[in-house]
């Protein structure tokens, strides 16, 4: 009887120790998980304050003001948990910002705190109203960007040369569905420059961007391209045959 009791107690002691060990590991992991950086938290809050939340600024059914949940108080200190924000789990830097259909209204220029988020890899400002702002040249700060979606957001003017220097881009969407009006244009620099510089593109949507040029042969340099939409761009002439021979192209 004594031996059985001793064995029973020992077994439970082992199980208890095992449980305590795993709880300690879980606590260590959670306590060492990096919070977002103060500078990036401030940049997000300042970006929010520079714009107005207006329900009419977005038109899609999924519309809701994501930034309304961003608060500077201690309870919400970790901006990595904010709606639309994703951080790198190791460094705590903001790497994704999805503010699609977020009811944002106002202008953006190169002094915007948005451009302090230099670790961004994905940015979507789809379906907001930026009041016919030009795309700021400070977009060059986002040298790590792989995905950029500025479609349906009332940007206007010439697409800056700095955007065409974001050589890591894989997905670029600058489209607008209103075929009666041109807001953005890609002329100087033009489509040829884009194809020469953004050679990692897999998806390119420029619907209703005013290009008004012949289709450059340099598009055939985009060997990773799977999807491209250039309707409404007033392109002239025929597409060079080599473009249709791109190995990964599925839609043009």
Automatic annotation (TrEMBL):
Q: How does it sit in the membrane?
A: Single-pass type I membrane protein
Alphabetical UniProt keywords: Glycoprotein, Leucine-rich repeat, Membrane, Receptor, Repeat, Signal, Transmembrane, Transmembrane helix
Which top-level group of life is the source organism from?
Eukaryota
GO CC annotation: what is one? membrane
The cross-references to Pfam families, in alphabetical order and at most eight, read: LRR_1 (PF00560), LRRNT_2 (PF08263)
Q: What is its main location?
A: membrane
Provide the Leucine-rich repeat-containing N-terminal plant-type domain boundaries.
37-88
The name of this protein is Leucine-rich repeat-containing N-terminal plant-type domain-containing protein
In the UniProt record, the signal sequence range is 1-26
Localization recorded for this chain is:
Membrane
Give yes or no: UniProt keyword Manganese. no
